[in-house]
C-alpha cells in the first residue's frame, strides 16, 4: 500500500495545456476513481503517476518520495490497460509469471505468486490456455493477475472495462472492487463511465478541461455537486437544468422561482440573482394530483425498472423518472410537485453552485 500525493502537477503538449495544476492526495488503501469526458486529462494524469510521461511542472510523491525522475519500473506500481496486451504465444501461467522471471525471482516464488493470484481471480482451470482460447472477461482477469503477482504499492487502471459488453462490465466491476478489498491495495481507476465511478469508488475525482472540479464520496457528488458540470455528469438519467427567473416574495422571506410563466417553487431566504439555473434530479420530480406545476408530456419510455417521461415546462425540457408505471400519453398535461429542498441552484454564467 502507498500514499500518492500530487502537487501542482501540470502537463503541456507544446503550447497546449492538458493538466492545469492538479493537487490531490490519495490515501493508502484507498480506491480513487478519476472520471470525466474524453479529453479532460484523466488518463494523462494516470500516465504521469505511472511514469509513462513526464510532468511539465509539479511533484508526484509515492510514500513521501518524489518519483518525477524515476522510470516506471522503479516506482513499484502496476498498470492495467484498456487493451489486455497479453502475449498471444504464451499460456495464462506464462503471461502472469513473465514479469517475475525478468526480475530473476525463484521458480518456487513465481509458482506461489501465480497460483495465489490465479485462485483469487478464478483462473485455476485456465492456466495452460492461450489468450485466443479465453473470453474478453477472462483475458482482463489475466491482465489483472499479471499486475497482482508483482505485489506493487499501487494499482493503476486505465479504462480496463471499456472493451467489454454491459453484463460483463457489471461482473468485472464487482470483481475488481472485491479484489481491491481483499488485497487492501491503493488503487487509482480511470473511466468516463459515471456508473463505474459511483459503484466502485471510495472517492471520485471529477475532472473537466484539465482541472479537478470536485473530489468526494460518490453520494456527496451526487447529492451536493459543486457546479453544473458535476451535477450533469454524475447521475443517470442526468440532472435536469432549467433556465429560471427569481424574484422576492412581497412581505415574505422567500423568493419565487419561475420557468417562463410557470412558477415552480418558492425558495426560503434571500440572495438569489434575478437569473438562475434550477437543477433537479429526474427521480425527484414528483407526479402529484395536488401539484402546482403543469407540464406537457412529450414522450414516455418504459424501462422495466421504471418509467422515464420527457416533459415540457415553460417551453423547456424536463425528465421524470419513477419506479411506478403511471398511465401517461404524449400530448396530455400532468401536474408536478418540485420540492424546494430537491432543487439545486446554479449561476448561469459560471455554472457555480449558488447556496443561500
Q: Write the element-wise H/E pattern from the N-terminal end onward.
A: EEEHEEEHHHEHEHEEHHEEEEEEEEEEE
> Which runs of at least 5 residues are low in confidence (pLDDT < 50)?
none
The CATH H-level superfamily of the largest domain is P-loop containing nucleotide triphosphate hydrolases
Mean of residue pLDDT values: 92
**Overall spatial form:** elongated
Share of helical residues: 10-25%
What gap, in angstroms, lies between the N and C termini? 42 Å
How many structural domains are formed by the residues? 2
Q: Give the strand order, joined by hyphens, for the main sheet.
A: 6-7-8-3-9-10
- The gyration radius over C-alpha positions equals 25 Å
**Count of distinct strands:** 21
Provide a count of the helices. Answer: 8
Could you give a short account of the major beta sheet?
6 strands, mixed
Report on the architecture of this protein.
There is one protein chain. This protein is of the alpha+beta class and 356 residues long. It has two domains: 230 residues, P-loop containing nucleotide triphosphate hydrolases (Rossmann fold), CATH 3.40.50; 115 residues, Nucleic acid-binding proteins (OB fold (Dihydrolipoamide Acetyltransferase, E2P), Beta Barrel). The strands form four sheets. The protein has a six-stranded mixed β-sheet with strand order 6-7-8-3-9-10, with helices on both faces. β4 and β5 form a beta hairpin. α2 crosses α3, α2 runs parallel beside α4 and α3 packs across α4. It is elongated and about 80 Å long.
Amino acid at each position: 500500500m502507498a500514499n500518492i500525493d500530487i502537487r501542482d502537477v501540470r502537463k503541456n503538449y507544446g503550447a497546449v495545456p492538458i493538466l492545469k495544476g492538479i493537487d490531490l492526495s490519495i490515501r493508502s488503501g484507498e480506491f480513487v476513481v478519476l472520471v470525466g469526458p474524453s479529453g479532460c486529462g484523466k488518463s494523462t494524469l494516470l500516465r504521469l503517476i505511472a511514469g509513462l510521461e513526464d510532468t511539465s511542472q509539479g511533484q508526484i510523491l509515492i510514500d513521501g518520495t518524489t518519483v518525477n525522475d524515476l522510470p516506471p519500473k522503479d516506482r513499484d506500481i502496476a498498470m492495467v490497460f484498456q487493451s489486455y496486451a497479453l502475449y498471444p504465444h504464451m499460456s495464462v501461467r506464462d503471461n502472469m509469471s513473465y514479469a517475475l522471471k525478468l526480475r530473476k525471482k525463484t521458480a518456487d516464488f513465481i509458482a506461489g505468486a501465480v497460483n495465489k493470484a490465479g485462485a483469487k481471480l478464478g483462473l485455476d482451470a485456465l492456466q495452460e490456455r492461450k489468450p485466443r482460447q479465453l473470453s474478453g472477461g477472462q483475458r482482463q482477469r489475466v491482465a489483472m493477475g499479471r499486475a497482482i503477482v508483482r505485489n506493487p504499492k499501487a494499482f493503476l487502471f486505465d479504462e480496463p472495462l471499456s472493451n467489454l459488453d454491459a453484463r460483463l462490465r457489471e461482473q468485472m466491476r464487482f470483481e475488481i472492487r472485491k479484489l481491491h478489498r481483499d488485497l487492501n491495495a491503493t488503487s487509482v481507476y480511470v473511466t468516463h463511465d459515471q456508473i463505474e465511478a459511483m459503484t466502485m469508488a471510495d472517492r471520485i475525482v471529477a475532472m473537466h478541461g484539465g482541472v479537478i472540479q470536485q473530489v468526494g464520496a460518490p453520494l456527496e457528488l451526487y447529492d451536493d455537486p459543486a457546479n453544473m458540470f458535476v451535477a450533469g455528469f454524475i447521475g443517470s438519467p442526468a440532472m435536469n437544468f432549467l433556465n429560471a427567473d427569481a424574484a422576492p416574495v412581497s412581505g415574505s422571506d422567500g423568493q419565487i422561482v419561475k420557468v417562463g410563466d410557470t412558477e415552480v417553487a418558492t425558495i426560503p431566504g434571500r440572495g438569489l440573482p434575478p437569473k438562475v439555473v434550477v437543477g433537479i434530479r429526474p427521480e425527484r420530480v414528483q407526479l402529484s394530483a395536488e401539484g402546482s406545476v403543469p407540464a406537457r408530456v412529450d414522450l414516455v419510455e418504459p424501462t422495466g425498472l421504471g418509467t422515464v417521461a420527457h416533459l415540457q415546462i415553460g417551453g423547456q425540457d424536463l425528465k421524470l423518472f419513477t419506479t411506478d408505471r403511471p398511465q401517461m400519453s404524449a400530448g396530455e398535461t400532468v401536474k408536478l410537485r418540485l420540492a424546494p429542498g430537491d432543487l439545486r441552484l446554479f449561476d448561469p454564467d459560471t455554472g457555480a453552485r449558488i447556496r443561500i
